[in-house]
Amino acid sequence: MLSHPCRLSTTKRMVALLFATLFACSSIFSVEAQFAGKLIQDPCVNKASCHDCIQTQNCAWCMEPDFIDLPRCFKNNLQNYCKEEYTWNPFTEQKFTINRELTRGGNASAAAGYGYGYGGSYEASSSYSSSSSSSSYAGAYGSAAAAGASASSGEIVQISPQRVSLKLRINQLHSLNMRYSQAIDYPVDLYYLMDLSKSMEDDKDKLSALGDKLSETMRNITSNFRLGFGSFVDKVLMPYVSTIPKKLERPCDGCEAPYGYRNHMPLSTNTSTFTSEVSRAAVSGNLDAPEGGFDAIMQAIVCRQQIGWREKARRLLVFSTDAGFHYAGDGKLGGVIAPNDGECHLSGEGLYTHSVIQDYPSISQINHKVKQNSINVIFAVTANQHSVYEKLAQHIEGSSSAVLSEDSSNVVDLVRSEYSKISSAIEMKDNATSNIKITYHSACLNGGPEIPTAKCDGLKVGDVVNFTAQILVTSCPTDPREWNQVIQIYPVGINESLVIDLEMLCSCPCERPGTTGYEAHSPKCNNHGTLMCGVCECDDMHFGHNCECSTSDVHTGSDKDLVCRADNTTQVDCNNRGTCLCGVCECEKRSNPEEIISGKFCECDNFSCERRKNVLCSGPDHGTCECSHCVCKPGWTGSACDCRESTDTCMPPNGGELCSGNGECECGVCKCKSTPEGRYSGKVCEKCPTCAGRCLELKHCVQCQMYKTGEFKDEDKCAANCSNTFVPIGEEKIVIDEEKDELLCIFFDEDDCKYTFKYSEVNGKLEVHAQQERECPPKVFMLGIVLGVIAAIVLVGLAILLLWKLLTTIHDRREFARFEKERMNAKWDTGENPIYKQATSTFKNPMYAGQ
Ligand SMILES: *[C@@H]1O[C@H](CO)[C@@H](O)[C@H](O)[C@H]1NC(C)=O
Ligand SMILES: *[C@@H]1O[C@H](CO)[C@@H](O)[C@H](O)[C@H]1NC(C)=O
Ligand SMILES: *[C@@H]1O[C@H](CO)[C@@H](O)[C@H](O)[C@H]1NC(C)=O
Ligand SMILES: *[C@@H]1O[C@H](CO)[C@@H](O)[C@H](O)[C@H]1NC(C)=O
Ligand SMILES: *[C@@H]1O[C@H](CO)[C@@H](O)[C@H](O)[C@H]1NC(C)=O
Ligand SMILES: *[C@@H]1O[C@H](CO)[C@@H](O)[C@H](O)[C@H]1NC(C)=O
Ligand SMILES: *[C@@H]1O[C@H](CO)[C@@H](O)[C@H](O)[C@H]1NC(C)=O
Ligand SMILES: *[C@@H]1O[C@H](CO)[C@@H](O)[C@H](O)[C@H]1NC(C)=O
Ligand SMILES: CC(=O)N[C@H]1CO[C@H](CO)[C@@H](O)[C@@H]1O
């Protein structure tokens, strides 16, 4: 009983239960056997060290001291492979360190009662002091700071759990459930940051008039509301503002001196102060169109103490302007080149001191600070600027933009609607590094199945949303210090988070000194190495399973680099399928004991031979696999021993050559050849539809027997050569019958007559059908053509002669007629010869007047 591998921890159980266990055990073994028969190489067996092993999914390590011949890394569903006390197979472990319930209903002061015994670490809540009503700045800051500190005790819990410690194995997905709910009466801090250039004068008046309404509206949303006010113009430098001394004092009518940013009123519950502060603030003037709003946003965010942001509150920063903004780099125009350092620089007066020392911040700097401080920026801008700020809002987490009317009369509605937009949506973010992947799933309020999303909309106060964060460690960081990480999952814009203390299970305890399983200079390692988790880690001078090989021994050989390689063409030892131990290859073991790697250089195996129908060498009846090649049993051949050696199937049924002499017998099947005449086909290559065949051979006998023409025209020859072979059967017209394997022959004889015949072999006897009559072209009368041509030539010649005669006659007549005419006009005597020229000549002087 004791040695039974599936022994239950207690023997007190009933016999029936024992039977059930036995049954379960036997089924496990059969599964195991099946598994061994499969060829899928399991990823565990090749892992040589404990940490490699447990970084592989579903693998476990066996650190049993005397565990020879079997891979120490094994699939963790194998039972009884390794004794339990020696098995290292860590599982994902999740523990809630802080898990307070979500605050449901109640208000801040009531929630203070939610101590739950964690109380020690939290201050008790105190009511928010209203002493910040003091009009002196110093006093206001002091009290605001005090209020901020006391607000940290806010026991309101909007995300649960709050802290989880997690041990995770690599590539194992872990789902962490968390819940979010927007608490009733959650504190809201609203800081109104206003552009106080001249064009905003009417807005300022309106805002001051609407101050009470604004706070009343917000109080309707939460009783725990605080309001603050700040303003900005621009850097007091050319070209942002005019630096002419007179203009510096009074840039415009009814204006005050310009300034960068001023905090008029820290966040306070006394909203009547807001109205008075806004109306007291004076407008100023500047030159260029864009304003220095970024400086102001940066200060309003980072000066937590001075502004009085509470730690646990929804923080809204309303930024109202009617102009564009300067950003990083614009400071160069005024000669300011030092970059913005993102620190708070406010004087006791609440004035930004580094306005002319530091450049404007960049958008990403602002985004970074906004994220760090969980602030929701609302850009309340006039319609002409809205498109610009809308784009800006996309680059700043948790921000939005809305259109402000020209005189800010819609500011209350704007703030209310933006607030409800912000508070009705929730988006989860985290700061996980690249080797940790967190994906969020939630059904939001739909109640259906969870879908991958980090964002839910349309939430109302008190709605609980469940999120599932799926955490996956994709790889172990190379630096062991990064194996423990703190990750924060937070809802955008809320200073509450779920902190995960993540420990990646990247190594085994037995690999660390001081644990069982770790033994430096172990005798098991011949005192030349450290025994870790059952395997030896040898020092530099030794190697081998038990550090039994010394590097000095092996390196004395002449071919020291070749000892584990077949030749110098390869760079890997033992063909990469084994380890080189003291100059001898020790080949890898496979998870399937049937599969053996062998050979001096592990170059052979008995499982990677060619397969037929997934059977190695077509099965043991046909051949065996030896050194990656099939060795066939007698009677079998082929690369996978899948061919019979006998060639009976290639013989034509009526006898004759193998494959009719027109092909080769391969693996019992004829491979027919192609000749210039045509391609052979058929089971034994007996067919050749495109070959000329016996047409030429038969043609003479057909000619002489049918038409008494051709080479054997003489009766004797014909009889001698043809009579005993075949007698053609005359037919009106030759038609091929496809079914009978008939072949058609067409020739032209010496008389240019076409004759057609067909032949077929019926039971080895030649049968020839020939056309009764040749098809001769009609005869032509050659002499007629010749005579005709001659006659035509003569006729044409005659015609040309006649024409010539006609033309000359006409010409002569004409000449004669002209001669006659000239003779009539002649001045000379008819008796005179017209051609005769007198020997004397007469000259006439044309200049001579001729009196
Ligand atoms: C809020 O707190 C006050 C006392 O501090 C209590 O009277 C009131 O009932 C609480 N509101 C809710 C909704 O619990
Ligand atoms: C605040 O709520 C009360 C009652 O619900 C309502 O009468 C009042 O008009 C609200 N005030 C504002 C500014 O919305
Ligand atoms: C609010 O501030 C005004 C002056 O700005 C002051 O008169 C009033 O007492 C303060 N209210 C409270 C409740 O502190
Ligand atoms: C967020 O709250 C924690 C206390 O829970 C506080 O230490 C931290 O300063 C707060 N962060 C901000 C930006 O206010
Ligand atoms: C959220 O999960 C809790 C259990 O953890 C369950 O009772 C509740 O119905 C879930 N809520 C939603 C909206 O799915
Ligand atoms: C994530 O944020 C938390 C809290 O700010 C911090 O402690 C932690 O180091 C951050 N983790 C990473 C990986 O940056
Ligand atoms: C391998 O060895 C042969 C003969 O020993 C030598 O000619 C050849 O250059 C070597 N090749 C390399 C790559 O070392
Ligand atoms: C491989 O060789 C071993 C030992 O010779 C033998 O037991 C095993 O059956 C062989 N495997 C195969 C697939 O032939
Ligand atoms: C081509 C051929 O076989 N020709 C023979 C036909 O018969 C005469 C007479 O027997 C032979 O002399 C030819 O050789």
From TrEMBL:
Its main location: membrane. One of its GO terms (biological process) is integrin-mediated signaling pathway. Residues 805-851 form the Integrin beta subunit cytoplasmic domain. It comes from the Eukaryota. Residues 695-781 form the Integrin beta subunit tail domain. It comes from Bactrocera dorsalis. Keywords: Calcium, Cell adhesion, Cell membrane, Disulfide bond, EGF-like domain, Glycoprotein, Integrin, Magnesium, Membrane, Metal-binding, Repeat, Signal, Transmembrane, Transmembrane helix. InterPro entries: EGF_integrin_1 (IPR040622), EGF_integrin_2 (IPR057073), Integrin_beta_N (IPR033760), Integrin_bsu (IPR015812), Integrin_bsu_cyt_dom (IPR014836), Integrin_bsu_tail (IPR012896), Integrin_bsu_tail_dom_sf (IPR036349), Integrin_bsu_VWA (IPR002369). Residues 49-508 form the Integrin beta subunit VWA domain. The chain crosses the membrane at residues 780-804. This is Integrin beta. Gene3D superfamilies: 4.10.1240.30, Cytochrome c1, transmembrane anchor, C-terminal, Laminin, ntegrin, alpha v. Chain A, domain 3, von Willebrand factor, type A domain. The gene is LOC105228808. It is a single-pass type I membrane protein. It is found in: Cell membrane. Belongs to the integrin beta chain family. Residues 1-33 form the signal peptide.
